[in-house]
Amino acid sequence: MLKGDGTMDLSNYSVRTDLALEAHNLASPSGEVIPGVLTSSENIEGIRISKTDITSQEGSLAIGKLPGHYITIEVPELRKKDSNLQDRVATVFAREFEAFLAKLNISPMGKVLIIGLGNWNVTPDALGPIVVENVMVTRHYFELMPGEVSPGYRPVSAVAPGVLGTTGIETGEIVQGIVEKSKPDLVIAIDALASRSLERVNTTIQIADTGIHPGSGIGNKRKGLTIDTLGVPVIAIGVPTVVYASTIVNNTIDMMRTHFQQQTANTAQILGLLDNMEEQERLELVREVLSPIGHDLLVTPKEIDEFIEDVANIIASGLNAALHEAVDVDNVSAYTH
C-alpha cells in the first residue's frame, strides 16, 4: 500500500514481537544509542540477562514499547532438559524478581495475587495456568489460621481466569473483580508471548513492570491488566511460545543470504530482488503471499508439551523463592511436583 507521498506504508507489516529486547534490536540494529532507552547485559554461565529501561515517551515511540523496566533472561540451552541448568535459571529469575519487588517497594508481607493468563486446552497458551498450578498459595492460611503461619511467608493467592472464548467474560473484568475483593498490594500476570526468533521460543523469560494485555501476543486487543486499570502495581512475566510463519520465512531468507555470501560475492544472481530488499519490504511480500492461503500462521515447536512444563516450573519455583523469604533463593529447584 502506498502513502500519499508515494512511499510504501509498511505499518501493518512490522515485525511482530512482544519482547522489549527484540524491539530495541529492531529499532537499533547497529547498536546506536536511542534517546530515552537505557540497556545493559551480562552473562552468567550460559544465562544472558538483558535489561532495558525506557525512560521517556520518545524512547517508547522509538521501539514501540511502554515506558518501564524490562528484564530478559535468555537461555539457549534450556531445551536440552538439563535439570541443573533449570535450577540455575530459576535462581537467577528469583533474584531478578526480588529486585523488581524492591523497586516497587513491595514489603515482605505485601499481599500478592498471581494471574495465570491463557487457555488450558491450547498447549502454547497454557503457560499461565500451569504456573498457577505450581506456585505456593498461602492467603487462605493467613485468613483462617494466622497464628499457625511460620515466619518468612506472605499472603499469596493465584487464579487462572480462562479466556474470553470459554468464559464469555473479558479476562480484565474477572481480574478487576478479584482485585476489588481481595485487595492485593501487587498483581503478577503471566502469559505466553510471540517472538520474532525461533531460537527464543521457550528459552526466554521477560519480566516487565508495565502490566500486560491478554491476547496481545497473537494480535487480539483486550482490556489491559495495568496499574491504571487495577489500581495496584502489575508485574508481567512472559515466555515466547509462538512465532509467525511470515517471521520464520523472513528469517530463513536472511539465513540463506548469509549462507550464499560464504560461497559467492554475487548473491543477487541466486536471490534476485530479495537480495536487496529491506526487512520490512520482505515481510510485506511474504504476508501478501500467505494471505490467500489463510493469512499469517502461528507456529510452535513440536516439543512444546515438554518445553511449556519445564519453563512453567522454572517460573513457579522462582516466584516461590522470590515471594517467600523462608524459601532459599540461592537453592531453588525448578521441579515443583
UniProtKB/TrEMBL annotation:
Propeptide-annotated positions? 1-18
Reply yes or no: does the keyword Protease apply: yes
Which EC numbers characterise this protein's activity in its record?
3.4.24.78
Q: Which GO terms describe its molecular function?
A: metalloendopeptidase activity
Q: Which reaction does it catalyse?
A: Endopeptidase action with P4 Glu or Asp, P1 preferably Glu > Asp, P1' hydrophobic and P2' Ala
Q: Which GO terms describe its biological process?
A: proteolysis; spore germination
InterPro entries reported for this sequence? Pept_HybD-like_dom_sf (IPR023430), Peptidase_A25 (IPR005080)
Q: Which UniProt keywords apply?
A: Hydrolase, Protease, Zymogen
Top EC class, one word: hydrolase
- Which protein family is it in? Belongs to the peptidase A25 family.
Subunit notes for this chain? Answer: Homotetramer.
| General function of this protein | Initiates the rapid degradation of small, acid-soluble proteins during spore germination.
Q: What is this protein called?
A: Germination protease
